[in-house]
Amino acid sequence: MSGVLSGMTGFGRAEGASGDWAWTIEARSVNGRSLEVRPRIPSGFEGLDRSVREAAQARFQRGQVNLTLQSRRTEAGGEIRINQTVLNAYRAAAESLMAQGASAPSADGLLALRGVVEGAEAAETDLTAVLAAIAADLVRALDGLKATRLDEGARLTPLITGFLDRIEALTATARREAQAQTDAIRERFTRRVEELAGGTGDLAERTFQEAAMMAARADVLEELDRLDAHTASARAWVAEGGAVGRRLDFLTQEFMREANTLCSKAATLALTSAGLDLKAVIEQLREQVQNVE
Known about the structure:
Elements: E1 10-18, E2 21-30, E3 35-40, H1 48-59, E4 63-73, E5 80-82, H2 84-98, H3 107-111, E6 117-119, H4 124-197, H5 204-217, H6 221-240, H7 245-265, H8 269-289
Parallel strand pairs: 3-4
Antiparallel strand pairs: 1-2, 2-4, 5-6
């Protein structure tokens, strides 16, 4: 959805009933680098697996989506009956084992064996209607999940823009400090050369050349320009909304690269402090961006 960020954590739920069937659907999602859909569909309803995946892919681009369908037959679902043929086969096998010293099986143990207890089968037309109704509720649950992810995105937006404001302000501070860094390097170098030379000889030209070389190595204007450009890009992507988390995540790495270079080139305490503050805010930004779809 353009203009609105989406988070990656959320929850959706839907309940429904049709004929002699009732069901509950829960959809949850957590952060993920890509989209991973994990349906949990009970036996007999496996045909819905594809519908779940297609519906999720139509709504989400990132995150781990877990959808659980729980279905049950209502009291109108027909009588429960014992398959006597299967039960007799199990009893015969049990008697053979008892003759060899095994314990007698319990009644509840026999009833729990596969195929002993049967329920009346639903008519094929009824099951078709049930599947269609469940498929519609699957969509409702995923829509609910999407709504909560958008709510999370709405909460993330002011946090992210606040960090971008802070990065922009710190970049401006670093730019002011960088302008004063050349003079500081020259003064520091001049004092050091005069101390070593004992105050003799004309060192002005040599001092200027060496200071100019040191200032060139300590030039951070390119890094500051790139930080400003990254901030502008991040603001544009946040305003664009939708699934921009992967791009923002990559951009935070570029932010940190420039901040690290700034700190390594800093020759004054003030510029070093601004660089360290930048790194701290960028890390906070990165933590929030991890939650954006």
